[in-house]
Design brief:
The complex is a heterodimer of chains A (about 525) and B (about 180).
Chain A lengths: L3 H9 L11 H17 L2 H4 L9 H10 L8 E6 L8 E4 L4 E6 L6 E2 L8 E5 L6 E9 L5 E9 L7 E3 L6 E2 L4 E2 L5 E7 L14 E7 L7 E5 L9 H5 L7 E7 L5 E7 L14 E2 L2 E7 L7 E4 L19 E4 L5 E10 L5 E10 L7 E4 L6 E2 L11 E6 L9 E6 L7 E3 L9 E10 L5 E9 L7 E7 L7 E2 L8 E8 L3 E7 L24
Parallel strand pairs in A: 1-3, 2-32
Antiparallel strand pairs in A: 1-4, 5-6, 6-7, 7-8, 9-11, 10-11, 11-12, 12-13, 14-15, 15-17, 17-18, 19-20, 20-21, 21-22, 23-24, 24-25, 25-26, 27-28, 28-29, 29-30, 31-32
Chain B lengths: L16 H17 L4 H18 L8 H21 L23 H8 L3 H12 L4 H8 L3 H18 L2 E2 L13
Classes of the chains: A mainly beta (about 525), B mainly alpha (about 180).
């Protein structure tokens, strides 16, 4: 749903709204002079000219930059070298699926997929996957609507599922078997106000026990944390929190992470206006979503300079069993004049989220992502921002082998020799030591030239191997793998030269060279 | 009014390039000034127009979006140069543009929260909300479909929401006239 208030916050924080400091005539004169000087100076002296000139590669980049992408749907099978086990990967996006098998070298195939949009996958088996396809709708595309699809043939064909609640899926599907799945959906009545916790929105859990043919719906009440500031409480009438994550262990037992508004005042980072803290709540159900128990995670004011944490950042949670869970959240600290830095806080529970132990993740972890995977009670893998290249930039994979007590770091996509920003979009493991990571590599500072990549490890993250992709892709949003080594992933094709942008993805083509 | 400046002796100057320059100079200057320190802004803007000049005749429809795309490479070059000089790169210009001190909202907290997002998320928010470009233009700049731009923008806005302490008035359905 649109969020006009936050849009306005950013819009009003625009640091440059005034005219250039130099007159336009002066600037034009400089350009004329610089251009003339280019023709008169030697190549050596050009290197010392303040106005740099273009080189051929840059001209090529610029020339392709004016052309728009056409999105192509593909299903691609890959057979590549190097692994002792069979690796069957699929990369599907809105627009395409790639199947990869690393047992043999070389072959690729591709077939189109029907779902188009920002897709998230959940694959209970190598052949059966559920897909949430979110597309922009409404005026200027600021609203989102999710449609669910299912494949039973490894991503070759997709069938839309009829869901009993319309809206934006705020969690991924969580499937405890091939036919039992649940998903959180956030819906709002027409005319609902915007904002993170607008009045009138409804959080539902939808569950199917027959593979998506029929669904049950339970409306979930996610209460704000109240009782501290009466004045703020008055503004939280008919306001609820919403889920960020849902994990189900059976058709009856699920755990969810919710972000809720609270009336806990917090030191403002903006002057003026009453402020409240968002709190994280762990919710559990053992009756299929009919009733829920909630545990509000502790909070302390980290903005006074003392160690502590606020739960303004969403926790990412992974439960290897119904009772053993590890979570990560980013913690804001104040330093000077309300400037902030962050660290990653590790949460561990052995009673299903009722009580928690916490410890700090070591450097260089600065900020957690929303992607944590714990294939066992001891092993966990998570991309974290280390900020080593640029603020908010390069991520590394943070790993534990002892249930979250200690952590190590690896960077499957090193930045040398070419500086780049690495963002790992998902991690999926089929055993304690075999995992895949999808992500994108973006040359530092450049726009629109990211390239998707995938890496795999079979030694618990000590070494990562680049997984060859059959086609060049811009982004891989998510990879989901099943034992022994079958994966499906959602991806977006890259910018392509010479194609005209449609207002949405185009039908795809079929590529196939499997077995070659 | 065009400047009373002699045309370049270089015959390669396209006839309508000066018009293109004058129509887009201020917008491009602000785009660059939002991304690199002010001391380097004029240099990067000039460099961008030099590159644009050289390519102007080969592009079907030169536009601000195309110009911004050119500038993005120049900004990247400037940042890399800055990095080689031993300084941290910056994704967002935070200092040097503060509003008057009596303004209750100086935007610093918002920009600080934005700086915590990934470069890609920051950029989509800046292009939509600061540059106020159309989604078609942004799609051209980023090499994405319009749909992908919309989805990325929405996701980036969600991440921003979660990275900033919430002004409490936004919980309320009633519009607060002092809120903006």
């Amino acid at each position: 749903m649109p969020n006009d208030q936050f849009s306005d916050l950013i819009r009003n924080a625009n640091p440059v709204r005034h005219d250039p400091t130099r007159s336009i005539d002066e600037a034009w004169s400089d350009i004329i002079d610089a251009h003339q000087n280019q023709g008169k100076t030697s190549s050596r002296s050009r290197r010392h000219t303040s106005v740099l000139r273009a080189h051929p590669r840059r001209i090529l980049e610029v020339s392709v930059a004016v052309l728009l992408i056409a999105v192509v749907s593909t299903v691609i099978s890959v057979r590549g070298p190097g692994k002792t086990h069979s690796l069957t990967n699929s990369i599907a996006q809105a627009f395409g699926v790639v199947n990869a098998d690393a047992a043999t070298a070389g072959g690729f195939s591709a077939t189109p997929t029907s779902p188009r949009g920002f897709n998230v996958l959940t694959c209970p088996t190598s052949q059966v996957c559920y897909l949430e396809s979110t597309n922009s709708v409404g005026v200027d595309g600021d609203s989102l609507a999710t449609t669910a699809y299912k494949t039973v043939d490894g991503g070759t064909t997709w069938t839309s599922l009829s869901m009993p609640a319309a809206g934006d899926a705020d969690t991924s599907f969580s499937c405890s078997s091939v036919v039992v799945c649940s998903v959180g959906v956030l819906s709002a009545p027409p005319g609902s106000p915007s904002g993170p916790f607008p009045q009138g929105t409804v959080q539902s859990m939808l569950t199917t026990t027959d593979g998506g043919a029929t669904w049950s719906r339970h409306v979930v009440t996610i209460s704000p944390v109240l009782g501290i500031d009466a004045a703020l409480d008055a503004s939280l009438v008919n306001v609820q929190g919403q889920w960020s994550q849902l994990q189900c262990f059976s058709e009856s037992a699920c755990i969810a992470v919710a972000l809720v508004p609270s009336d806990q005042p917090q030191e403002p980072i903006e002057s003026g206006g009453a402020l409240g803290v968002q709190r994280t709540v762990i919710m559990r159900t053992d009756d299929g979503g009919v009733t829920w128990t909630s545990h509000v995670l502790p909070w302390s004011n980290a903005l006074d300079g003392s160690p502590g944490w606020s739960n303004a950042q969403v926790m990412t949670l992974s439960c290897a069993t119904p009772v053993t869970c590890v979570g990560l959240s980013s913690v804001l600290h104040s330093v000077v004049n309300n400037a902030q830095t962050s660290n990653v806080l590790v949460w561990r529970s052995s009673d299903g989220g009722v009580t928690w132990q916490t410890n700090w993740a070591p450097a260089p972890a600065l900020e957690s992502s929303l992607r944590l995977t714990c294939p066992t009670t001891l092993q966990c893998y998570a991309p974290v921002d280390t900020g080593t290249t640029v603020p908010g930039g390069t991520e590394e994979i943070m790993m534990t082998q002892d249930g979250g007590n200690t952590w190590t770091f690896e960077n499957p996509a090193p930045t040398a020799p070419s500086p780049s920003i690495n963002e790992y979009n998902s991690v999926s493991c089929t055993s304690e030591s075999t995992c895949w990571i999808s992500g994108e590599v973006l040359p530092t500072g450049r726009l629109g030239s990211s390239q998707a990549a995938m890496w795999a490890t079979s030694d618990a993250g000590q070494t990562w191997t680049s997984v060859p992709l059959p086609v060049k892709l811009g982004i891989i949003f998510q990879v989901d793998c099943n034992a022994p080594a079958s994966c499906l992933a959602v991806a977006q094709p890259p910018y392509k030269d010479g194609q005209v942008s449609p207002n949405g993805p185009l039908p795809g083509e079929i590529l196939s060279n499997e077995g070659s | 009014m065009m400047a009373n400046i002699p045309a370049s002796s270089d015959a390669a100057l396209p006839s309508d390039f000066e018009k293109f320059f004058r129509e887009n100079y201020s917008s491009l200057w602000r785009y660059v000034a939002r991304r690199i320190p002010r001391a380097k802004t004029d240099d990067v803007v000039s460099t961008t127009f030099i590159v644009a000049w050289e390519k102007f005749s080969t592009v079907d429809n030169p536009s601000l979006a195309w110009l911004i795309r050119v500038a993005s490479f120049e900004i990247a070059n400037a940042r890399r140069k800055q990095g080689r000089e031993g300084r941290h790169e910056i994704s967002i210009v935070i200092d040097g543009f503060a509003d008057p001190p009596n303004n209750e909202f100086d935007g610093s907290g918002v920009r600080s929260a934005m700086s915590r997002l990934s470069d890609a998320d920051q950029e989509i928010l800046r292009l939509v909300l600061w540059e106020e470009l159309s989604r078609d233009d942004i799609a051209q700049i980023l090499g994405l479909t319009v749909n992908a731009v919309n989805v990325r923008y929405y996701r980036a806005l969600q991440k921003f929401e979660r990275s900033i302490v919430v002004p409490h008035h936004i919980y309320s359905a009633k519009e607060d006239p002092n809120a903006k």
